[in-house]
TrEMBL record:
Cofactor(s) the protein needs: Zn(2+)
Domain (Alcohol dehydrogenase-like N-terminal) ranges: 25-142
Superkingdom in the source lineage: Bacteria
Start and end residues of each Alcohol dehydrogenase-like C-terminal domain: 188-259
Protein name stated in the entry: Glutathione-dependent formaldehyde dehydrogenase
PROSITE patterns reported for this sequence: ADH_ZINC
UniProt xrefs under InterPro entries: ADH-like_C (IPR013149), ADH-like_N (IPR013154), ADH_Zn_CS (IPR002328), GroES-like_sf (IPR011032), NAD(P)-bd_dom_sf (IPR036291)
Species annotation: Herbiconiux oxytropis
Family membership noted in the UniProt record: Belongs to the zinc-containing alcohol dehydrogenase family.
Record key words, sorted: Metal-binding, Oxidoreductase, Zinc
CDD domains: FDH_like_1 (cd08283)
Molecular-function GO term, any one: oxidoreductase activity
Amino acid sequence: MKAMVYRGPYKIRIEEKDIPRIEHPNDAIIRVTKAAICGSDLHLYHGLMPDTRVGTTFGHEFIGVVHEVGPSVENLAVGDRVMVPFNIYCGSCYFCARGLYSNCHNVNPNATAVGGIYGYSHTCGGYDGGQAEYVRVPFADVGPSIIPDWLDDEDALLMTDALATGYFGAQLGDIRHGDTVAVFGAGPVGLCAAKSAWLMGAGRVIVIDHLEYRLAKAREFAHAETIDFAEHDDIVVTMKRATDNLGADVVIDAVGAEADGNFTQHLTGSKLKLQGGSPIALNWAIDSVRKGGTVSVMGAYGPIFSAVKFGDAVNKGLTLRMNQCPAKRQWPRLLEHIRNGYLTPSDIVTHRLPLEAIGEGYHMFSAKLDGCIKTIITMDAA
């Protein structure tokens, strides 16, 4: 099969790999029909995620058709059209029993922190991902779901991570009716978080970024107010002035480890890798939320130290909520919103490329070229 293969920072190739095989009775092999490039894939591409090994296939957002099932699989059959959450989880451990699928204790040797994630380094279990013609899906009776006939392929694909994570970010904000919600980052997750905030009762939604084409999408897709932080000397002061000098009720960090805006933090976190990422957006979130407010963290950070303003969070009495999204837990409500016309996640898709052009897709997304917000990769496996 053809698969995207990591060969070092900024180096990916399309190579021939063996079609994965059933390794456990609960496995399924999925023939991938569509995958996506996620903003967090760029952390791998840039060499920021520990233990990202040469030869790995990325991709944690994908849908496809069941190609083969293990002898213990009961809920799937060959030919089923399925969407697969980015989390790999057993469904029965202490954490899965509590709906914390992203913290499963049985799928990752490093599970004291994160659970398993497709195509996201050996820090997250070492599983190959779905930017390939075929992928092995463990615990196939637990993770994948059959795609309803009425659901568009691209909308289903966005539910595997970007939409679910954005919705979860808004959910963690514990938004009350009439709240002012600020979202740092107008990438796919930030856009979905901003859109979801309205569904949870927000009275005002503000999106902050420094790329005009992404801010334009925030106005169009999420109907949000927008602020270009590059146009202001101090974005925290600007946010305070925009909120009666109190701060937003809820702030969502949808940026993560490669945030711009502070040279020293960006240099030490993103370039020299002395921190687990550049916590600029997170510190801005802490400083621009009101006292007693809530900060929801959806941006991905590495597992090592980051210079976060924790003292400010303590002194302001903030609630900080964060986790990798347990994607499948969000699906029932998201399906309802999509069917009722409140959400059309595929509206954020800007580019569609064949697998052979995935290198171009990564470069375009990384360098912020051609108005790229979300790229879908289409497979042609027989």
